[in-house]
Amino acid sequence: MVRQMMLGLRSAGTEVYEFDTDLNREALDCDGREYDRGTSGPVWLRWEKVRPIVDGFRPELIVCNAGGLSFRPEIARTLRESSALLGIALSDPDVFQASTSRIAENFDLFLTNAASTIPDYRARGVAADLLPLATNDEFFYPVPPRKEYECEVLVIGRASPDRIEPVRQLHQHFRVHLYGEGWEPHGLPSRGLLFGEELLAALNSAAVSVIFSRTPAGHAIGKVAIFDFIAGGALVASHYLSEIERYFEYDREIIGFADTEELISKIEFYLSNPDQAAAVRDAGRRRVLSKYLWRKVWPVITDRLQEMRAVRC
Question: Which of these, 116, 139, 137, 86, lies nearest to 215 by C-alpha position?
Fold first, then answer.
């Protein structure tokens, strides 16, 4: 997702220098902890490693995207004299206490994936807001269905506690294709992992793709996968959430459900009414393409950041 966002910023017409922390681990300081992408604490960028890039590229904006990533406070203050600093959290609220709450003050603007954390950020004096969700249609688009991926229900993801029993019940009612890790100990066979063209083929071969809304810690949030899958040609079913109502109209552009019983009922309805299923699928994709692409979202973010810095000055 982080790279999709970066490519969207580049597609919006911005010259971008990509600094991949996975390829530059020597630039990361975890205060003696093992690097875990910010799960248990902040991940500081070593200024002596990053400074040559900043001095050479002279960015107007520096984005620290996810992973508990930040410059240390004294470096951030100096950088903000010449560059705007934008921080982004993609794993809130799970990492709020350990990581993101400890770095957010270092940025001109901090965007979080979890609306529930915004009051806490603002109470700490942080300029925080909700991260707009979007996708990249250069990577997620419809492809022809393939026989080997045909199924009534597609589920992709880890075997989180909240998903196990719903998936078991789905198996009892429908032809389910399940992908992801951790399902076998629960008697639910996984077909492995999906990437690239194989993922797109699966999305376009399934009648309904189910996305569960909870994080590993059990918090309900809007998932970027909803946007990716809809752009990729899927008919998506996901929990009713006020955060998703900001983007889609339930049962016109995306299937909504409150519990497993309603999910099963909705799937049965759309399997019996393929024309209505196709209408929801098509309407959802039109909505995503018209409004929720990263190249369209980024200018809104950068304009807001410029306005905030102008007021501060």
Answer: 116
| β-bridge mates for residue 179, sequence order | 156
Instruction: Please enumerate in sequence order all residues whose Cβ is within 8 A of that of 28, keeping only pairs 6 or more positions apart, or say none.
Output: 21, 35, 43, 44, 45, 46
- Cα 29 to Cα 75: distance, rounded to the nearest angstrom: 14
Q: Are 164 and 218 in contact (CB under 8 A)?
A: no
168 and 104 in a common domain? no
Distance CA 38, CA 35 (A): 7
Instruction: Kindly indicate the confidence band of residue 306, based on its pLDDT and cuts at 50, 70 and 90.
Output: confident
Q: Which residue is associated with the tokens 């220098």? A: 17
pLDDT reported for residue 217: 81
Residue-wise burial string across 175-204, b where 16 or more C-beta atoms lie within 10 A, e elsewhere: ebbbbbeebeeeebebbeebeeebbbbbbb
User: What DSSP string describes 228-289?
Assistant: HHHHTT--EEEE--HHHHTT--BTTTBEEESSHHHHHHHHHHHHH-HHHHHHHHHHHHHHHH
Q: Would you say 124 and 105 are in contact if contact means Cβ atoms under 8 Å apart?
A: yes
244: domain CATH number is 3.40.50.2000
Question: How many whole angstroms separate alpha carbon 90 and alpha carbon 112?
Answer: 6
